[in-house]
Input
Amino acid sequence: MRSKSFDLFLEAVLGRKQIICRYQGHDREVCPHILGHRDGEEKALVFQFGGGSGSKLPRAGEWRCFKLAEVTDIQLRAGRWYSGSYHRSTQRCVDTVYVDVNTDVPNQPGRLAVLR
Output
C-alpha cells in the first residue's frame, strides 16, 4: 500500500508539477524525478531549486534524496520544471523505481517505467 505522500509525488511526476513541502525541518521547493523504494522505504529523487536546507543549497539548485515518510505539508503547483544539467550518472537514491521522468540516463537500476 502506498502512502498519501507517495501518491502526491506520483501526481507531481506525471504532471510535471512542482512540490512545496517541509522536509527535515525546512520548507523546500522541488521537482520530483524518480519515485520508488530503497530498503523498503518510499523515496524520491528530487531536484531542489528553492527553499531551505540543512546544508547550503547551491544557487542553481541540487539533487536531493527524500524519505517520503519524513515529508509533510505537501502542495503541488504549476510552474517551471527544474532539472539539474549535471545529472548524468546512475542515481543511488531509489533501487526499485516506480516511475522515472529522467530519460537522459539509460539503464537506471530497478526501473519499471519510463515517462517522457
The first strand starts at residue 18 and ends at 23. The mean pLDDT is 87.
